[in-house]
Amino acid sequence: xxxxxxxxxxxxxxxxxxxxGELLARRLGYLYFxxxxxYRALTWAALRREVDLDDAAAxxxxxxxxxxxIQPPTADDGRQYTVLVDGxxxxxxxxxxxxxxxxSQAARHAPVREVMRGRQRAIGMRGRVVMVGRDIGTIVLPxxxxxxxxxxxxxxxxxxxxxELRGRGMAADVAAVxxxxxxxxxxxxxxxxxAPDALVLNNDTLLPEQEVxxxxxxxxxxxx
Length: 224
Ligand code: DC
Fold this sequence. Notes:
It is a single chain. Among the domains are: 1-5 and 35-127, Rossmann fold (3-Layer(aba) Sandwich); 152-191, no CATH class. Helix content is 50%, strand content 17%. It has helices spanning 17-28, 36-49, 56-65, 97-107, 110-125, 136-140, 154-167, 174-188, 208-221; strands at 3-10, 31-34, 68-71, 82-85, 88-89, 129-133, 144-151, 199-202. The strands form 2 sheets. A 5-stranded parallel beta sheet has the order 2-6-1-7-8, sandwiched between helices. A 3-stranded antiparallel beta sheet has the order 3-4-5, with helices on one face. It binds 2'-deoxycytidine-5'-monophosphate (DC).
């Protein structure tokens, strides 16, 4: 049985999933939910509390107790949403290089993923959601009405990341960022999946608006 009002978008870091996800959610009037934020929030909290990122049990415990609240944007500073962790606005903290560096390490533990996936699935079950991540179409919501796999070349993904960092006033070296994105790919590989029935789109050759049109056309071809 398919879940009528759910769309999943998976793919590697920097492929353009969040731009597409937000655009699509707005077009459909659905909630846009970026699951990467949950792993980032956990990593940020673990770094602050000096929880060992190799201690799966301690991290899973932290994941269970941490109040991660994702709300509509509360400031007009380019954010897609506001993230509160235990009541504090950490939206931009979650994009800091130390979180980037450590998040794959925190996200790789099975007990951590079990907690996160349970919460993600509960949100998905409410319907009317575009859920973005790495394992959403394969594991979290395999019954989603439509599953998208958004791909892009390493070079294009690194360029996007450089522009994003520079846009926020941070220094970014193309070679270093490319190496970092490649390293993230290797670390994320084991959690990343492409559902066999996913619609595969390539962001190197398509604009987000074109991707949305293709998705809407595909939705028209699948029974609700
Ligand atoms: O999409 P992002 O860069 O914000 O994701 C941050 C990290 O979280 C990345 O290392 C992959 C991981 N992640 C995951 O393991 N599963 C998801 N569903 C989403 C993100």
